[in-house]
Design brief:
Distance between the termini: 26 Å
Mean pLDDT: 96
Largest sheet: 5 strands, mixed
CATH superfamily: Metallo-dependent phosphatases
Low-confidence stretches: none
Strand content: 35-45%
Number of strands: 10
CATH topology: Purple Acid Phosphatase, chain A, domain 2
Radius of gyration: 14 Å
Helix content: 10-25%
Shape: globular
Number of domains: 1
Length: 151
């Protein structure tokens, strides 16, 4: 299963992002969507799960959950916007934890649990690169990859 993971679009969905997500079977958005139309556009690529970020206000965004957990095939995952919001038991129970907010891409293993921040792929902030993540799930194996949105 190929899973596209993105965060911090802040109301801007670049064509390059859609091109990188093509072929994904599921999409996870770790918050700061910025505009409900972005989720609609992403749903044309694959089913989307999203959490509410600190800028997500108004119709279609204010109803997003603060946490999401579930399965990616056989792999249990959880997602929050801020790393500080990760429930303390998640690293013991889950194989993948997704967060956003910092705009910095991050891959950190804690035993068998991967903490993944895809970075930001919307409006450029903090002079950081624009990135997203593609995760390949095969049974209980995770292969993560951070992808640059711009060359």
């Amino acid at each position: 299963m190929r899973v596209g993971i993105l965060s911090d679009t802040h109301g801007l969905l670049r064509p390059q992002v859609l091109a990188l997500l093509a072929g994904c079977e599921r999409l996870l958005h770790a918050g700061d969507v910025g505009d409900a139309a972005i989720l609609d556009a992403l749903r044309r690529v694959a089913p989307v799960e999203a959490v509410r970020g600190n800028v997500d206000q108004g119709p279609g965004l204010d109803r997003l959950p603060h946490t999401v957990s579930g399965q990616l095939g056989e792999l249990p995952f959880g997602m929050v916007h801020r790393r500080e919001e990760v429930p303390p038991d998640w690293p013991r129970r889950l194989r993948l934890i997704v967060c956003g907010h910092s705009h910095r891409p991050e891959l950190e293993w804690d035993g068998r649990c991967l903490l993944l921040n895809p970075g930001a792929c919307g409006q450029r902030r903090f002079q950081l690169p624009l990135t997203l993540a593609i995760v390949t799930v095969d049974g209980d194996r995770i292969t993560p990859e951070i992808r640059a949105v711009e060359p």
